[in-house]
């Protein structure tokens, strides 16, 4: 299996990596080709972990999403394809553990909710089959625990709650759930649910104004109680108060070429990691202080090769490692923070 890729801008130079992984008679053969060209000055905040995963041959489909159980050191990957396992489980060191496929049709987003009391995996399913248009909760071994939505039927209803191509979700440690519903479907909604699945607040109109969306594709929270939504079609990130749903502002200036497809904060809360799908780019953006949204300010970028297509990403809340699901390259890659710039969680 081949892996290609990474151009990382940083520290006054542009560094491109071409990494080839192949398998011959069960033994890995690694070839590296590296070159540097003077370009621009940026802090280099991450390095590619070229040894993750140990067995990339388990990527047998198109890798759409990735989640990290930081408490237990596990990485969950959702992939699409016929007659393949849809969910792959690796250790944070890159060793393959298991796979499962039960009631998963077409995974789009995935989230690992891990506390001392419960470990669960949530999946947004956009398939047209019996299990599609749902948000589902699983045990870490793939046992179906809860289904939100009307399986196999898309819709706009709120009672009962229906989805159409739900893109992603974020689950707080309290159990509250934030769902962005509408990856090109009937809905363009941000929904907050309580831990017992009651709607707490909702923004649900298609449009370009405040609190309106055009393909809300990713959602995350910061430590100041703000909800950040990648409003991909409108080329912006919108921000809301997590308790009231009040619109707090938007970032437009960083995404004139293409809208954001994925958003996640680093464990220290200093940076927001943003993926742009068709640009094959990751951006490290300075997080605003409490009480202000301000303007988007890019600190560093990771420019991937053409057609790698980073779809969704996740940040390990313990180590700060960034995992990127690439639908073009059909793989997940891991980027490790350089501790001088991004201290690990709790340091």
TrEMBL record:
InterPro entries associated with the record: 6-blade_b-propeller_TolB-like, NHL_repeat, TRIM-NHL_E3_ligases
Keyword terms: Glycoprotein, Repeat, Signal
BP GO terms, sorted: proteasome-mediated ubiquitin-dependent protein catabolic process; protein polyubiquitination
NHL repeats: 204-243
Highest taxon, organism lineage: Eukaryota
Keyword Glycoprotein in record: yes
GO molecular function: ubiquitin protein ligase activity
PANTHER family, alphabetized: E3 UBIQUITIN-PROTEIN LIGASE NHLRC1-RELATED (PTHR24104), NHL REPEAT-CONTAINING PROTEIN 3 (PTHR24104:SF31)
Record's protein name: NHL repeat-containing protein 3
Species annotation: Papio anubis
